[in-house]
Amino acid sequence: MQDIDKLAASVLAEGRMEGLPDGHFIGGKYVRGSANAFLESFDPGTAAAFASFSAGTADDVDQAVNSARDAFFTVWRDTAPAERGRILQRASALILENLARLAVVESLDSGKPLQEAIGDVRGAARAFEYYAGACDKLQGDSFPLGSRHFGYSIHEPVGVTAHIIPWNYPISTAARGIAPALAAGCTVVAKPAETTPFTALMLAEILSQAGLPDGVCNVVTGRGAEAGAPLTRHPGVDHITFTGSVATGQRVMQAASVEVTRVLLELGGKSPVIVLDDCDRESALQGVMGAIFENAGQICSAGSRLVIERGIHGDFVAELAKRAESLKIGHGLRRPDFGPVNSALQLERISGFVERTREAGRQIATGGEVCTDPETGKGWFYQPTIIDAAQPDDEVVREEIFGPVLTVQVAEDADHALELANDCQYGLVAGIYTGSFDRAHRLARAIDAGQVFINEYFAGGIEVPFGGNRRSGFGREKGLEGLKSYCKTKSIAARIG
Ligand code: NAI
Ligand code: MG
User: Fold this and answer.
1) Rounded-to-integer distance, Cα 175 and Cα 1, Å
2) CB contact set of 73 (below 8 Å; sequence gap of 6+)
3) 351-386 in b/e burial notation, b at 16+ Cβ within 10 A?
4) Tens digits of per-residue pLDDT, 146-191?
5) Which of 169, 327, 365, 403 gives 388 a disulfide partner, CB atoms 3.0 to 4.6 angstroms apart?
6) From the CB of residue 148, how many other CB atoms can be counted at a distance below 10 Å?
């Protein structure tokens, strides 16, 4: 830990970092983009640019996809599963060896508090460890066709997989897609977000050091329209995993339809946290705080709608507001409780939502203002915000804000809470706090969401399948089910004798 804080302190003092990746990562090495054009990445904690990276084009994407296709047919598809597992296992260990650098870069580039970035890097290592162990356990079935026939199935890798990665969890989202893709025998072209390009490149380099053959994992950086879009319509891509906004997800799906490319969409949410009056108050308070203020609320599965029973509503919200006001705000590298948001654009979006709800006469229990790092007066920060007594039709209740803004809805009882929770266009996750086993599981079954957390928001890990219903998207990541997203089943039936 000391190493990390030493590195963080020197990066903070200098406002930059030596030895960042330079170029796209294609065919096992860094290459200059064909247009020789660059973009800048910013430190959200100071709002200053700290490094540049290649602005990818359709030509770069083409080169990366060709490299991934070659590597698929000439080496990776036919690499023994146990050997794939060994490489992934080494990658996991190397991620941990590089923890300090990866975490500092992740915190600097995204703005998130260093301790959260450390957790994300550990999570990435865990994803590789988990899927390393699964490589040689992807068994097929045999089918009972009677004594004159023989039927069996095998799980084949889908081929070249594209991974379009958002800026809120750059290394975690990259790892949760790339690790199972590689485990299944697929090759990869990843396109990180334009505000957080570096850790995906570093991950590709680490995979290479772990023994991954050249061309199996490629990364092209750049803007969505210029580097992301060509990847989604490329005929050499067999599958697309996309995490981001609904609007962009719809464009990805349309582009994919031309070549009938498979898609997995993870499009965020507006997830409810139901707090019933028989809950353990302290666990619920801690859970709700983390659900909305971790990563400044920029989480697809953030618990952004508190749905609480009337009897405990007043006291609970007063205590939440007190805790929100006591969060220490600051630059991510100083390990604050609460860091900046990722970009000026995101800050503007968040502030727009809150201003509109203020104009509509809603009560802001706490927060509701743009602010800066109190130490430097710089950065893109938004106060931890709670909007009390929100109504089901309010824009702030219906739309994903993707920032530190919690709405509170009052429920008369558990059934009413369920009704409010399900009145939503999204269905990613949901939280339930109650002391009653029966009520917890009755609600868990009735809620429309891909994942439900009972008495601990974000409970679970890489073992647990994750993904959305309704406008949150479709397909599942994580767990063994996540591995199946990168496989196609082939059934073979034969006549004997
Ligand atoms: P976005 O969905 O536009 O960006 C996500 C990724 O898609 C980035 O890598 C981007 O470069 C890429 N992309 C953009 N346009 C593309 C295109 N036409 N084809 C292929 N790839 C493309 O999200 P943005 O604009 O950064 O954020 C807007 C909102 O989206 C946020 O306020 C939030 O509500 C939501 N969002 C949800 C995320 C989640 O985890 N589900 C993550 C990021 C954003
Ligand atoms: Mg950045």
Assistant:
1) 22
2) none
3) bebbeebeeeebebbbbbeeebbeeeebbbbbbbbb
4) 999 999 999 999 999 999 999 999 999 999 999 999 999 999 999 9
5) 365
6) 9
Give CA–CA dist 320/337, Å, rounded. Answer: 15
List pocket residues of ligand 1, CB cut-off 6 Å: 164-168, 191, 193-194, 223-225, 228-229, 232, 243-245, 248, 251-252, 266-268, 300, 346, 349, 400, 402
pLDDT at 1 over 90: no
* CA dist., res. 24 & res. 38, Å (int): 11
The rounded Å distance from CA 109 to ligand 2 centre is: 4
300 is catalytic: yes
For 55-87, what is each residue's pLDDT tens digit? Answer: 999 999 999 999 999 999 999 999 999 999 999
Q: What is the pLDDT of residues 436-449, one digit of tens each?
A: 999 999 999 999 99
Residue 356 C-beta-side C-alpha neighbours within 13 Å:
12
| Global confidence as pTM | 0.98
Residue with CA closest to ligand 1 atom 11: 224
- Quick check: 44 and 329 in contact, CB under 8 A? no
